Amino acid sequence: MAGKRFSEKHRLVYYDGDRTYHASIPMLVNLMVLASEDQSEELGVGTEEVSKYGVGWVVTQYLMTINDLPKIGLTIELSTEATAHNKFFCERRFSIADEAGNSLLEANSNFVLMNHKTRRMGKLIPELLDPYGSDEVKRITRLPRVPKITDDQGTVSKEYPVRYFDLDTNGHVNNSHYFEWLLDVLPAEFLQTHIPTRLNIQYHKEIQYGHIVKSEVVKTNETDTEINTLHKMTVNGEIYCEAECSWKTVTAN
Questions:
Q1: How far is CA 246 from each of CA 42, 111, 149, 220, 225, rounded to the nearest angstrom?
Q2: Which candidate, 140, 144, 142, places its Cα nearest to that of 84?
Q3: Nearby residues of 34 by Cβ (< 8 Å), 6 or more positions away
Q4: What is the mean pLDDT of the chain?
Q5: What angle do CA 112, 213, 229 make, to 5 degrees?
Q6: Bridge-based pairing state of the strands 90-97 and 103-115
Q7: Cβ partners under 8 Å of residue 191, min gap 6
Q8: pTM of the predicted model, to two decimals?
Q9: Residue 191, CB-side half-sphere exposure with 13 Å CA sphere
């Protein structure tokens, strides 16, 4: 599959990381989205142009493979390209590499165009899509579904109120906050001694300002080399987002 590839560099600073002195997953997601937005601006279909059509790009799923999390102070290269699309969905790939060109993270994602007034997805608009040079296909790559947390699985949970400053320019919750709520429910000790190696997140409904989000997690598998967790976020008992994550143990700094 083809598409116009865009790359840019970023020096990781203190607010990009966490207590482990490595870049956090939520901040890396922010930087990936920034790279895609910078490409859009370069191609003449940035946020201002897209808004003229009364729509905005919304992600429906990410599937990430994480080889390593870069340390604060290093310079990383973020690359992205819109690879394929059909009438309703666009596939966009991301990658992050270190200064030596070693792959740190690879991600595939699906995006849709959401109408600002109806808050519903619609058909892709050629004027906003053609500049990326992605291939038109009948079906885009189907990313794997996240397994459901069953009623008999005991979960750990926390609640998070959605604040005004959690919203982005499209008026919906910034992508990085979903990752924060999904991961923050895990104990601090666990987060300081483990890093994710694979992360699959599906967005089902749009979390909005004023919602009280309940984030739940359960460990589904634990071996000497890997731990798997299932996550879900609900509002008033209705599922808005689900995720599956695999983890490996690392030495705490």
A1: 35, 24, 15, 10, 10
A2: 140
A3: 78
A4: 94
A5: 80
A6: antiparallel
A7: 18, 183
A8: 0.93
A9: 18
